[in-house]
Write a structure and sequence with these properties.
Length: 461
């Protein structure tokens, strides 16, 4: 079996990988890293949850180990479709480049241009950005891409969904033709295939099958709610969620609670808070500073319950999550695997509870078909009765739709109104690469596009 020590990575990178607790690369890492270290273009066809982020960050850090960045001329560029994914890549560089002197900048919406300009002016080895914000800086004359030696496009299929392909093509044209390119996509739509044929040169093509099983360290349980009245589904599910959390007691050291819709994320978080739980929401309609502070609070343990849309499954890298609660059964079976994969990591034991109502049956069948096992049915906590739920009936909810019910949006479809932050998630610090700004300036490209579709769940990479 291949180990990271067999992959000719920089010793400083190997030290960081070891300190992070990893010894064995995932299949895409084992295949992509040797090609990347040789300077070859890489085309990775991989679903989320395969470890692809490290498959390009580790060789990039090794290749950039020699040399020095020049002002406004980054040596490498990573493009990601959303702020959360860009922030996740930035965190990977923080982890694996900590023993090097490489510098990075994170260019995303929700942070003042002035603060990002300062980082660029100092010169950075690694520039991580969403396409819209990158082009905004370029058009303001603050950035040159003629020094880019390595370019990565991550989640190209999401770029296509969000209408970023014209921007991606333009960015390719602004970089040197002799650059090394690493291109990752879960699918190969005709438009994606056209781009790879145009901008990649004889790439090493690596294809990895999707994740379809849950970890054996996770105890799964399905809790069925059968409300007396149809309009009580939502209220009874909230009551069941609270009862489950209370029943787990001290064993529930922290938990991620997944909802299918951004609107429901806020309702569930507010309900938990009103009943005395330490909870906060996170989803794409909260501004960047709010999201980052919420994640930081969850990481350091000051926040107990994180109520999330599926976007959080890609942005989180927290090894010790004791519980996952699926407030909604996901419409797409892969999302179930990604969600519950937030717990039971690194050899730890975890629990995953899924709350269902009768209308979820077809989604449960799809999930159980994917994971090739039946989710064990559990009993409601002792003393729970639907009649103990909130007395108010549910607010009318939009019909569930396979295409729109996944918190993805799409060219403005199914967008909920912007949500005000709750008390716990007031003004927050961005990542190290994007220092706190005095004011948030307008970011027309990112605000217009990047949060239209939120990604499916993914295990941290």
């Amino acid at each position: 079996m291949t180990k990271f020590s067999d992959l000719a990575l920089d010793p400083r990178v190997l030290q960081a990988v070891t300190e992070a607790g990893y010894e064995t690369p995932t299949p895409i890492q084992a295949e992509a890293i040797p090609h990347a270290l040789q300077g070859r273009d890489v085309l990775g066809i991989a679903q989320t949850g395969t470890g692809k982020t490290a498959s390009f960050t580790l060789p990039m850090i090794t290749l950039l180990g020699q040399g020095r960045a020049r002002a406004r001329m980054p040596r490498s560029l990573v493009l990601a479709p959303t702020r959360e994914l860009a922030a996740q890549v930035a965190e990977n560089f923080d982890i694996y480049a900590k023993h090097t002197k490489l510098t990075k900048a994170l260019l995303i919406g929700g942070v003042a241009f002035g603060e990002q300009d300062k980082l660029i002016d100092r010169g950075v080895d690694v520039l991580i950005a969403t396409p819209g914000r990158l082009l905004d800086h370029f058009e303001r004359g603050k950035l040159l891409l003629t020094g880019v030696q390595i370019m990565v496009v991550d989640e190209a299929d999401r770029m296509l969904d969000m209408g970023f392909i014209p921007d991606i093509e333009r960015i390719f044209q602004l970089t040197p033709p002799k650059r090394q390119t690493m291109f990752y996509s879960a699918t190969m739509a005709p438009e994606i295939e056209r781009i790879t044929k145009t901008f990649l040169k004889d790439p090493a093509k690596i294809e990895v099958a999707r994740q379809a099983t849950a970890s054996l360290t996770i105890t799964q349980s399905l809790i069925e709610v059968k409300p007396i009245r149809k309009d009580r589904n939502f209220g009874d599910k909230r009551a069941m969620l609270r009862a489950l959390i209370k029943a787990e007691g001290d064993a529930c050291t922290n938990a991620i609670i997944f909802c299918n819709r951004k609107m429901d994320v806020d309702v569930v978080a507010k309900s938990l808070k009103s009943h005395g739980f330490n909870a906060a929401p996170i989803h794409g309609d909260l501004d960047q500073s709010q999201r980052m502070k919420t994640l930081d609070a969850f990481r350091d343990g000051t926040l107990h319950l994180l109520v999330a849309s599926d976007v959080a499954a890609r942005g989180l890298d927290i090894p010790a999550v004791s519980h996952v609660f699926n407030f909604d059964v996901p419409s797409h079976p892969e999302d179930y695997v990604h969600r519950i994969g937030r717990t039971g990591r690194a050899g730890r034991l975890g629990k995953a509870f899924t709350i269902s109502v009768p209308s979820d049956d077809k989604y449960l069948k799809a999930i159980e078909s994917l994971i090739k096992t039946e989710i064990p049915r559990g009993a409601a906590p002792e003393g729970f009765e639907p009649s103990t739920a909130d007395s108010r009936p549910d607010q009318p909810r939009a019909p569930r739709d396979d295409r729109k019910g996944r918190d993805r949006g799409g060219r403005g479809r199914d967008r909920e109104r912007p949500v005000k932050a709750h008390d716990e998630v007031a003004a927050m610090e961005p990542l190290v690469a994007a220092p706190k700004a005095e004011a948030v300036e307008e970011a027309p490209r990112d605000d217009r596009r990047e949060d239209r579709r939120e990604p499916r769940g993914d295990r941290p990479e």
